[in-house]
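Query structure, 284 C-alpha cells:
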C-alpha cells in the first residue's frame, strides 16, 4: 500500500517514523514464535553448568521434514511420527511416515488457535494451544475430537511418565496433570546451579527423565522429574547450524523417543530435516 503525506513542516517526518516503526514491529510479530516476549538471557547460546555433564551427539539417520511445519510438538508411537504445528491459521496435527515424511493424516485447528505441544496417552492424542488456555483430546487412530480441557497458564510442551501428564508453560515450572481429569496435581521448579531454567518448551519423557527444549537455545535440558534439578545438558549447536536454525523463527524444537527401539529424534521449526541422534557422554 502506498501512503501519500503532504508536507507540513516537520510533522510529516514524525508520521513517517511512526508508520515505519509500526510496520517493522508487526513484521517481527508475524514471524516470531512468541511475539512480545523477551528472549532468555542465554538466547542463541548453549546453556552450561560446570557441575552437570554436557553431552554431545552423533547423527544416526537423517529424514525429510516439511520445511513449512512450525514444529511445536513431536511424538513417536507404534511406527508413526506425530507432529503438532503452530502459527494461527496454520496450526495442525499430523500423522507422518518417518522414513519418507509423507503425511498420512492431518487435522487443522481453527484459525484462532496457536497449536503447541502434543503427547499420546493410551489411545488419546493430546494437543495444547498457546494462549487460548485450551487443550484438545483426539482419538489417536482417526484424529476425531473426543474432548477438551482448560488450564490457567500458557500451553507450551507436554509429555507423560505413564501415570501423569507433564506440561510446561514457558516459565521454569513443570506441571503434573491427572490424565483423566486434567487437573493439576503437582508442580516442580526446574533449576541448575546457575538458577531457574526458564523458557522450557517441547518436552519428552526419556528413560525416566524429562528432556526439554529451552526456547531459542541449542540446548536440551535433562531434568529429574522428582526434584526438578537439571542432571545434564545436550549441546545441539552444530546440528542447529547444519539445519539452518536461526535462533528465532527456525529454532530447535521437537523431541520424540521410540521406547521400543531406544531411538531419539530431534528437529526444529521450519527445518528441512529430522535427525535420529545418539547422545554422546562427555570425555572422562
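Result returned for the query:
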Amino acid at each position: 500500500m502506498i501512503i501519500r503525506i503532504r508536507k507540513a513542516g516537520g510533522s510529516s517526518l514524525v508520521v513517517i517514523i511512526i508508520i515505519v516503526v509500526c510496520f517493522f514491529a508487526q513484521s517481527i510479530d508475524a514471524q516470531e514464535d512468541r511475539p512480545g516476549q523477551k528472549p532468555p538471557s542465554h538466547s542463541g547460546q548453549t546453556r552450561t553448568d560446570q557441575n552437570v555433564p554436557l553431552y554431545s551427539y552423533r547423527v544416526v539417520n537423517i529424514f525429510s521434514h516439511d520445511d513449512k511445519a512450525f514444529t511445536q510438538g513431536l511424538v513417536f508411537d507404534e511406527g508413526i511420527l506425530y507432529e503438532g504445528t503452530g502459527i494461527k491459521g496454520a496450526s495442525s496435527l499430523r500423522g507422518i511416515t518417518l522414513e519418507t515424511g509423507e503425511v498420512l493424516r492431518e487435522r487443522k485447528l481453527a484459525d484462532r488457535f496457536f497449536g503447541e505441544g502434543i503427547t499420546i496417552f493410551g489411545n488419546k492424542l493430546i494437543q495444547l494451544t498457546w494462549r487460548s488456555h485450551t487443550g484438545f483430546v483426539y482419538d489417536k487412530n482417526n484424529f476425531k475430537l473426543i474432548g477438551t480441557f482448560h488450564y490457567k497458564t500458557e500451553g507450551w510442551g507436554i509429555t507423560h511418565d505413564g501415570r501423569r501428564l507433564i506440561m510446561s508453560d514457558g516459565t521454569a515450572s513443570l506441571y503434573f496433570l491427572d490424565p483423566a481429569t486434567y487437573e493439576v496435581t503437582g508442580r516442580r521448579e526446574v533449576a541448575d546451579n546457575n538458577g531457574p531454567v526458564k523458557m522450557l518448551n517441547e518436552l519428552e519423557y526419556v528413560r525416566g527423565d524429562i528432556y526439554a527444549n529451552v526456547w531459542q537455545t541449542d540446548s536440551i535440558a535433562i531434568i529429574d522429574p522428582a526434584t526438578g534439578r537439571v542432571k545434564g545438558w545436550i549441546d545441539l549447536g552444530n546440528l542447529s547450524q547444519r539445519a539452518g536454525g536461526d535462533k528465532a523463527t527456525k529454532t530447535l524444537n521437537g523431541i520424540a523417543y521410540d521406547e521400543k527401539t531406544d531411538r531419539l529424534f530431534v528437529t526444529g521449526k521450519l527445518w528441512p530435516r529430522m535427525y535420529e541422534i545418539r547422545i554422546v557422554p562427555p570425555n572422562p
